[in-house]
Amino acid sequence: MRANFRLQRLFVEAPLHDGAVVEASREQVNYLANVLRMEEGREVLLFNGRDGEWRARLRFPTRKRVELVLEEQTRPQPPLPDLHYLFAPLKVGRLDYLVQKAVEMGAGLLQPVMTQHVQGKLGSLERLRANVMEAAEQCGILAVPAVLEPVRLDALLDDWSPDRRMVFCDEGAESNNPLPILERIEEQALALLVGPEGGFSEAERQRLHALPFVTAIPLGPRILRADTAAVAALAVLQASRGDWR
Asked: Which residues of 65-101 are buried (b: 16+ CB within 10 A; e: fewer)?
């Protein structure tokens, strides 16, 4: 069932069920009442990443409070996509973009990875999670991916489960076409690793190439910025091995 984009969508933490009444946050009250100028009785859609999507009606008990009265479930809760997105932090504005696009492209988990040539600072995980929620609200996504604590690349590889194939974008690849390489992958569980703006170090590339659960792919003949490479890699992976097929 496709999302209804005629109604405003809001992410809430509260449980959602028939007859529930959810108190809007202060930020949501300002957005609904002052920015959108919604009146009592208007409808919105609520989701929390657990209980599906629900149609709710606005109620104003006071001028500074908004209650959201649930009326019916409009979409059931889907499972999270089984695609893990592993990324080196970028500069703040581009990192916001990268996180939002990863959610839009169907990542089910976001894992910041600290590599040798990381140039950006991760900053607050809450900011990244806020970008996840914003992308989910705008794009009709119900299964909200988690953002994990950052981990060093070496530690990530040491603890990796070989049942999940890790695909990494190798700027040193000799070919341009990733499709024949991706078509040879047999595992269903996948993770995509995209490096920093400075690329992977030679030691990191050598270790990645030596691991049996890692597959290196090129991304065409052009030099791509890290955030562009992330979107391109997610698209080609979803088209060849993911849920676009």
From this structure: ebbbebeeebbebeebbebbbbbbbbeeebbbbbbbb
Q: State the residue range of the domain holding 32.
A: 9-75
Total domain count for the chain? 2
Q: What DSSP character marks residue 164? A: S
- Quick one: CA torsion of 7, 104, 28, 17, rounded to 10 degrees? 70
Strand runs labelled E in 37-194: 43-47, 53-62, 65-75, 83-87, 109-114, 146-147, 151-152, 165-169, 190-194
Q: Rounded to a whole number, what is the distance in angstroms from the first to the last CA of the chain?
A: 18
Residues 6 or more apart whose CB falls under 8 angstroms from that of 56 comprise 22, 43, 44, 45, 46, 68, 69, 70, 71
Q: What is the pLDDT of residues 34-76, one digit of tens each?
A: 999 999 999 999 999 999 999 999 999 988 899 999 999 999 9
